[in-house]
Request: fold
Amino acid sequence: MVVPIQEFVFVTVGSVVLSLVLLAVLLPWTRDARRLLLIGFACAVGIIVWNVALNAANAGALNVDSAILGLSVQDVGSAVLALVATFVALMLGDRGQPTIHKLGASAIVGLATLIVDRFG
Reply:
């Protein structure tokens, strides 16, 4: 396995929790329970899809920390997929906010995932 199940679970749960806390504190419009559920679900789906793909491809070389901030392709990929999945979910499931707000919330989710994955 490229990504051990313990790391997989920790990063998924930690990213969702940190993302939702940051969003609730920083962006008042996200405090609606339905939005938070949508964002948390999308974040988890993005992380799971990326890590399952890495495990299925046996892409162990992508889970090696680099000299640049100690990040691996696996770390960055989890963050990017969490960001993209959140943005797509907000675009499709929440028509009440401007696109720039949705993009900002998605960026916070991506950064939170990167932090959790890097230090987790």
About this structure: The CA atoms of residues 19 and 77 lie 16 Å apart.
